């Protein structure tokens, strides 16, 4: 293509190339962000905004679409396969009876707050589904308790001292608040590389023509 350009257009080619690949990278980044909610249920803004672009420069027409380091650690298994990445967490912390935030995750410091309650403990419990390790809440009413009015007063006192999303447990049995699950092999796939390549190929001619015209029009 460059051999068919006029002298003026040829001189402006490096600018057009750099702008073209940068704009293509931006289009690809937008496509990657839009695809994340299709792969994961309600991904956090941190995950979505981890998709970034490194712009090209004149003389080096290379732009990069990438995921920032922190998010890349836990997203990589969904691109390349492998076990879930848990980082410093001892296990995959799954809210069961505990309140989750709008993204389905435990709020920050939730475990620490729960462990500050006198009716909560952490450990394994044998159930009909097997032994489950997690954060458990003891039942508030002990077997044989009959003083309901006293129970209500104690419950209000406990609620006032430990204002958490999970209230006192009146089910009469242990309640699982947070389950500790081992990491599993990922099944979902981001297809990050495939998607970016498809966006570039679909838009290359259009974007290059537009950016070359702009570069020629702005030439001094």
Q: How does this structure look, described?
A:
The protein has 220 residues and is α+β, with helices and mostly antiparallel strands. It has 2 domains: 2-84 and 185-217, no CATH class; 92-181, no CATH class. The protein contains 7 helices and 6 strands. A 4-stranded antiparallel β-sheet has the order 3-6-5-4. A two-stranded antiparallel ribbon has the order 1-2. Strand 4 and strand 5 (130-137) form a beta hairpin. It is rod-shaped and about 85 Å long. The two termini are 22 Å apart. Mean pLDDT is 86; it is low at 146-151 and 162-166.
Observed structural traits:
2 domains, four-stranded antiparallel sheet, 7 helices, 43% helix, rod-shaped
Task: State the share of residues found in helices, binned by percent.
Answer: 40-55%
The major β-sheet equals: 4 strands, antiparallel
Estimated share of beta-strand residues: 15-25%
First and last CA, distance = 22 Å
Extended strand count: 6
Report mean pLDDT, rounded to a whole number: 86
Strand line-up across the major sheet:
3-6-5-4
Radius of gyration over all CA atoms, rounded: 28 Å
Structural class: alpha+beta
Tally of alpha and pi helices? 7
Shape, please? Answer: rod-shaped
Number of domains: 2
Spans of at least 5 consecutive residues with low confidence: 146-151, 162-166
Q: What series of H and E elements makes up the topology?
A: HHEEHHEHEEHEH
Chain oligomer state: single chain
